[in-house]
Amino acid sequence: xxxxxxxxxxxxxxxxxxxxxxxxxxxxxxxxxxxxxxxxxxxxxxxxxxxxxxxxxxxxxxxxxxxxxxxxxxxxxxxxxxxxxxxxxxxxxxxxxxxxxxxxxxxxxxxxxxxxxxxxx
Length: 121
Prior knowledge:
- By secondary structure, the protein is of the alpha+beta class.
- About 20% of the residues lie in helices and about 40% in strands.
- The protein has 2 domains: about 60 residues, Roll (2,3-Dihydroxybiphenyl 1,2-Dioxygenase, domain 1), CATH 3.10.180.10; about 50 residues, 2,3-Dihydroxybiphenyl 1,2-Dioxygenase, domain 1, CATH 3.10.180.
- The protein is built from 2 helices and 8 strands.
- Strand 7 and strand 8 form a beta hairpin.
- The longest helix is centred in the first third of the chain and has 12 residues.
């Protein structure tokens, strides 16, 4: 069963949103040293329930995107489509992290799907 493992927030000024989240919520927010502009957000003690996320550059959206763990991304996308979803973003690499895709549920909600693979390019 895929579990929620990550959330994404978008901002036209992600550095300012990162600073806000650190000050307002005590999150540990650090700029990712990857190929895209992205801040990783640690939201608390990893021994307690909860998830971490990130902040990317883009227009804010009216929803937070929850990303689910997908040990087999292609199979998870296929299962979601069989259940009525539409592919919103096909499988693509996040270099050094893994493979990412997204589906839109029949009601319009967006779900990210992530398959770990440090060799992804």
